[in-house]
Amino acid sequence: MPANRNRSALLRRGLAVAAALPLLALAACSYGSEAKDDTSEKEKVAAGSEKIDGLDSVKIGYFGNLTHATALVGRHEGLFQKELGATKAEYTTFNAGPSEIEALNSGSIDIGWIGPSPAINGYTKSNGKSLRIIGGSASGGVKLVVDPKKIKSLKDVKGKKIATPQLGNTQDVAFLNWIAEQGWKVDADSGKGDVSVIRTDNKITPDAYKSGSIDGAWVPEPTASKLVAEGGKVLLDESTLWPDKKFVITNIIVSQSFLKEHPKVVEAVLKGSVATNKWIGANPDKAKAAANAQLKVDSGKELPAEVLDPAWKSIQITNDPLAATLNTEAAHAVKAGLLDKPNLNGIYDLTLLNKVLSAAGESSVDDAGLGAK
Fold first, then answer.
1. Among 49, 243, 265, 301, which residue carries the largest CB count within 10 Å?
2. Is 180 helix (H, G, I), strand (E, B) or coil?
3. Which N-terminal stretch is annotated as signal sequence (predicted)?
4. Distances (CA, A) of 341 to 8, 15, 92
5. What is the widest separation between alpha-carbon atoms in the chain?
6. pLDDT tens, 197-236?
7. Mean pLDDT on 65-94
């Protein structure tokens, strides 16, 4: 990348490209797909329960990915609704981060599960005024899967066509950083260079792999396991590149205005999240089935066992937002030329999460010095 390239302009172009494909695929809703009206018994408001702060509903967003397992399982098992009383949990699903950030900014959702890169971008573009990260959800679940006939070792990736979900998204940034660490050169904007980075929607990546138009992909679950089911080989698990094999893949964010106006509702959602994560840990097989069942409700399709089982095993559910790794991921985006050095001070507010964790007898979590003052 030329040294004099304006990185702010590049970021704006990147975000526009990143938003384009998912927005074309959205349903009638402006920003995402409203969850189907298929409310289970567990999701229904309990008789005699009361609204929190008199609020009728809270609007919650998430992706139909296993890396958003807390949202999938918590919704399916009614664990959020249980904590919210008569304040109804209303859900919207998204295909990608930019559209979810748009929805948060517009008030179409109040709270969401999302990856680190869109959270960073949303926070920095608003000059620190749009959102706060209020909790963790998942670590891991990202792999480099390749065609073993074309790529037999990491050095063979050079000269090949490798897909990432979208320009500037979390996996794209990670792959660009890995490429740079190999000493190879790639233009972040075009994806051209020693490796061809092909930005491809996760929904069509398996078909692109089968057709031979890509040689592999750096992708989250369950897309990685779908590629393996098509004959791909896991060449690298991203967790091996991180200290303690942990890095943030999904966080919980909230609109700053909603947090200020309805902290009790936010606390209730966090109680539901912590309760869900505890239930997942105690009931891994039931939780896996619940996540898959919710995926079927949301998309009309469930994952086959050969995809679901390995994908589920590679994801670590956590309450910890792993703040230090978010800071590192931001530095990777800067190095790739996708982001000017951001000021992330204040991006976290873990006050309510630590209150919930303390009440549950669990250890508090740290904001790596990036907490709101």
1. 265
2. helix
3. 1-27
4. 10, 16, 32
5. 64
6. 999 999 899 999 999 999 999 999 999 999 999 999 999 9
7. 96
By residue count, the chain amounts to 373
Helix (H) or strand (E) holding 111: strand 111-114
Extended beta strands in 256-334, E state: 315-317
CA dihedral of 181, 208, 15, 371, whole degrees rounded to 10: -60
Give yes or no for a contact between 141 and 219, defined as CB atoms under 8 angstroms apart.
no
| Local structure of 218: helix, strand or coil | strand
Query: How confident is the model over 107-136, as pLDDT tens digits?
Result: 999 999 999 999 999 999 999 999 999 999
Is CATH 3.40.50.11540 correct for 7-141+246-359? no
Phi, psi angle pair for 37, to nearest 5°: -75, 75
Structure tokens at 181: 């660490």
The token duo for 132 is 């706060």
Model pLDDT, residue 43: 73
Kindly state the tokens that stand for 216: 């592999």
Q: What's 142-244's CATH class? A: alpha beta
Instruction: Give me the residue label for tokens 């951001």.
Output: 342
337 or 289, higher pLDDT: 289
> In the block, which residue shows the tokens 């304040």?
87
Instruction: List the domain boundaries for the chain.
Output: 7-141+246-359, 142-244
Helix or strand holding residue 112 (H, E): strand 111-114
CA separation for the pair 317, 138 (Å, rounded): 5
Asked if residues 239 and 322 have their Cβ atoms less than 8 Å apart, the reply is no
Burial of 112 (0-12, 13-18, 19+ CB in 10 A): buried
> What residue type is 266 in one-letter code?
V
Would you state the structure tokens that stand for residue 202, as one six-digit string? Answer: 């996760």
Cβ neighbour number for residue 16 with a 10 Å cutoff: 12
pLDDT > 70: what percent of the chain?
89
Rounded to whole angstroms, how far apart are CA atoms 339 and 125? Answer: 10
Residue of 361, 360, 172, 334 lying closest to 275 (CA atoms): 360
254 in Cβ contact with 110 (< 8 Å): yes
